[in-house]
Amino acid sequence: MFYKALEIKNERMRYCKRMDNLLVEKMNRKKPKTMREIEDIWYEGYSESRSRHYHNSRYHFLNLHSFFRRNRTVELRGFNSVLHAGKIRSFIVLSLAINNQALTQKSASSKKPQVENEKFAMRTYLNRIGLIGEEFANCRSHLTKPLSGSAAWRFRVG
To answer: Which residue, 58, 53, 18, 61, is CA-closest to 42?
Structure first.
């Protein structure tokens, strides 16, 4: 749903791959307690050296390679280059909200959310991560515009 909402084009998928389901399953199964354990799981399955700058693990929506190397930064690679101020603000606010959720949420689930109505699912997710109220109406509008369905109703009546 993020890929559709952010309008990530197919030609960018080489540099912005979807998260590997096996990675999520390994994290849930092994329940790492240290950053070193998370790092080991992140690089599992890659034959190249972890110190390589252009490591293949970096070409995902979420890039932790730069965090584990020297920069100590988390990179979200899913945003198109645009000049529209409203879209740029929406991307920044979404990034901040996702980071805040990662820092404050006590647990996570790997279960896929309902998506029979994409626009409603995204709106409820955005509300859940704190993009509530008139202050974030423009952000919600930009982030749900490319999605199908109704933002107001999960199931359409009639």
So the answer is: 58
Helix (H) or strand (E) run with residue 63 in it: strand 62-63
C-alpha distances in Å from residue 131, one per residue of 33, 52, 98, 108, 143: 30, 37, 10, 19, 11
Return d(Cα 92, Cα 84) in angstroms, integer: 13
Per-domain residue ranges of the chain:
17-76, 90-144
Q: What is the C-alpha to C-alpha distance for residues 138 and 87, in angstroms, rounded to an integer?
A: 9
* pLDDT (mean) for 55-70: 89
Amino acid at 1: M
What's the predicted TM-score (pTM) here?
0.81
Closest by CA to 56, choosing from 110, 20, 95, is 20
Q: Give percent of the chain above pLDDT 90.
A: 41
What's the start-to-end Cα distance of the chain, in Å? Answer: 25
Q: Quick one: pLDDT band at residue 156, thresholds 50, 70, 90? A: low
Please tell me the distance from the alpha carbon of residue 84 to that of residue 77, in angstroms, as a whole number: 18
pLDDT digits (tens, 9 = 90+) for 99-122: 999 889 877 776 777 777 899 999
